[in-house]
């Protein structure tokens, strides 16, 4: 644990010395939010719910998907710089190296999410959620970030180029667009609707939206947690397998 804390301090210093990474992570989701609310929002029927309230959960997931690409970037940079070999020659816990990058991802993405929510408030986002609901929202976003971060570890360790290390995040960024994040799934054609309703982003968005509005989340919450937990377990095991092979 001590080794992980020390190594996390190292990676966090890298982030604080290049705050543009957090700003860049937040800029794209904010630009999307402005575009959808002020350009497309009037053409999308979301009933009595304002469009900024409707689409914010999806924007938060896009923010996380954008942010984790920097985890792969930092890991790739460490692999190429030879710092991993230096760490292996030192009496430190090997898992601490990976966990330092993962914990840094959680902190950096949390800061980006705060920025995005702040802009949403300026745009008119309002929530009737109580403290417990906000804690539930934070927990879901934390779990989702953790799951995607462990996915990011794999290309960070295995990519042969910097572009390859970060390109994996593009499908994750676009996945919310084929879900209930920005338009009701009932308006989609049959095959697209079937995919949208049975992929992990839709229950996540529905659960977050229900928590924000104080509505019952029902099975969406359990489906969202199941998806996040399943992805986390598979990604964690895969990342550690790749890590052991790379350092052996």
Task: Explain how this protein is built.
The protein has 248 residues and is mostly helical. The protein has one domain. The chain is 77% helix and 0% strand. The chain has 12 helices and no strands. It has helices at residues 2-16, 20-40, 51-67, 69-81, 83-88, 95-122, 131-158, 162-167, 169-174, 190-197, 201-213, 219-247. The longest helix is centred in the last third of the chain and has 29 residues, at 219-247. The two termini are 22 Å apart. It is found in: Cell membrane; Membrane. Its main location: membrane. Keywords: Antibiotic resistance, Cell membrane, Membrane, Transmembrane, Transmembrane helix, Transport. It is a multi-pass membrane protein. The chain crosses the membrane at residues 21-44, 56-76, 97-125, 131-153, 165-183, 221-243.
Largest sheet: none
Specify the structural class.
Answer: mainly alpha
Question: Which bin fits the share of residues in helices?
Answer: over 70%
General form: elongated
The termini sit apart by 22 Å
Average pLDDT reading: 85
Membrane topology: Multi-pass membrane protein
Family: Belongs to the ABC-2 integral membrane protein family.
Domain ABC transmembrane type-2: 20-246
Main location: membrane
């Amino acid at each position: 644990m001590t080794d992980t804390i020390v190594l996390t301090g190292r990676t966090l210093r890298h982030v604080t010395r290049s705050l543009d990474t957090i700003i860049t992570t937040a800029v794209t989701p904010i630009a999307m939010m402005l575009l959808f609310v002020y350009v497309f929002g009037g053409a999308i029927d979301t009933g009595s719910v304002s469009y900024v309230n409707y689409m914010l959960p999806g924007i938060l997931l896009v923010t996380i998907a954008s942010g984790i690409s920097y985890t792969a970037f930092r890991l790739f940079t460490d692999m190429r710089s030879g710092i991993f070999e230096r760490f292996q020659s030192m009496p430190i816990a090997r898992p601490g190296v990976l966990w330092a990058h993962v914990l840094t991802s959680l902190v950096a993405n949390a800061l980006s999410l705060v920025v995005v929510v702040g802009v949403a408030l300026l745009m008119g986002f309002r929530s009737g959620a109580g403290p417990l609901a906000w804690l539930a929202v934070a927990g879901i976003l934390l779990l989702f970030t953790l799951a995607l971060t462990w996915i990011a570890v794999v290309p960070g360790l295995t990519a042969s180029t910097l572009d390859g290390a970060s390109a994996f995040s593009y499908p994750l960024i676009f996945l919310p667009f084929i879900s209930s994040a920005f338009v009701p799934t009932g308006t989609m054609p049959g095959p697209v609707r079937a995919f949208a309703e049975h992929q992990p982003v839709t229950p996540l968005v529905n659960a977050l939206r229900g928590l924000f509005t104080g509505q019952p989340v029902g099975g969406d919450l359990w489906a969202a947690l199941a998806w996040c937990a399943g992805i986390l377990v598979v990604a964690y095991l895969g990342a550690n397998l790749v890590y052991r092979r790379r350092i052996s």
